[in-house]
């Protein structure tokens, strides 16, 4: 009896997942297949390019097979990285030992990459976004749609902005976000993980089959090893994705000091509270439920604090006394620990708003990295400032 129930249950699950897969597979682009490009070819940029290229090859009615990936050109052993990727189908510097699909084409020219694209996926360390977006101005049609996979904020004349909002404001195109518990190398190895894509359907939506909607985004990003949930809360997933990197630096400090799991859990508790508070104060459209219902949120905080690059960099700082930038350079071979810049952006914004004292962990991380405050002071800094909560 129990065995029969199990069998029925398994067959129901299989039936549901086959139905879901076939409903995605039967989508058709009614005008021409959507042309995809990826801007960025780092650790995550290349991984996401692999994911979408696989789906592009599998769904010819929906996506053009060729996916272009913009590569910030550099030489590896006297050869251009683009040439290596296009010949060997491997990004030997930023994603070694992972075979890339043959329909993924590395392109050194930014403008050639976006030419005729229907969907642009931004995936670079966020400190380079402004420069890239400025180069794209005037070269992207207003009906192009975009997804930002970046984690960070833009802080400037307009205050603190989501990176997707920055893209929309500067290029005049709708931009959503993708964020989740996604250490790139695990996704690249096709170990199962989940992610969240958030996207608002814009007012100039041209209709199902002619434009990008939630079904198209699911078809673009969902893989058997990469399960996608598509929602509306762009602000919630973006705030969570940016700020968990700052919390991870705090975890790295206490880990490097040898304080153990309780200390790391304490940092994550305070950090989650500050993430939610930041979202509510500065992006009131974000939903608190997103943080625990979606992969972008608590789940991302957990994976990042367990094994992300920010935690590794901060740990090395604690163990060696190195500066953040030196530790990043030594450990990451050109990759970026985004929390180092994000904590500065957050500090500058909070100072403008006279709200520094309401975010004691974020401020402690900033002071340790930029003003050499002893990391052993973290517990006291959190206590002293927490009275303002
Ligand atoms: N790696 C991950 O596990 C992961 C997972 C999820 C999200 N993210 C986020 O995705 C974004 C991209 O991260 P990544 O891991 O692909 O990048 P990365 O950290 O691997 O950075 C290296 C990339 O930066 C490029 N670069 C270096 N100098 C440049 C310049 N002057 N102009 C433009 N590009 C330059 C390099 O060419 C390379 O492509 C980040 O915001 C990151 O937080 C990363
Ligand atoms: O390696 P990190 O610290 O940049 O984190 C990677 C991802 O953002 C985890 O989801």
From TrEMBL:
Substrate binds at residues 151, 309-310. It is an enzyme of class 1 (oxidoreductase). Residues 35-200 form the Glycerol-3-phosphate dehydrogenase NAD-dependent N-terminal domain. The active site is at 244 (proton acceptor). This is Glycerol-3-phosphate dehydrogenase [NAD(+)]. InterPro entries: 6-PGluconate_DH-like_C_sf, 6PGD_dom2, G3P_DH_NAD-dep, G3P_DH_NAD-dep_C, G3P_DH_NAD-dep_euk, G3P_DH_NAD-dep_N, NAD(P)-bd_dom_sf. It comes from Maudiozyma barnettii. It catalyses: sn-glycerol 3-phosphate + NAD(+) = dihydroxyacetone phosphate + NADH + H(+).
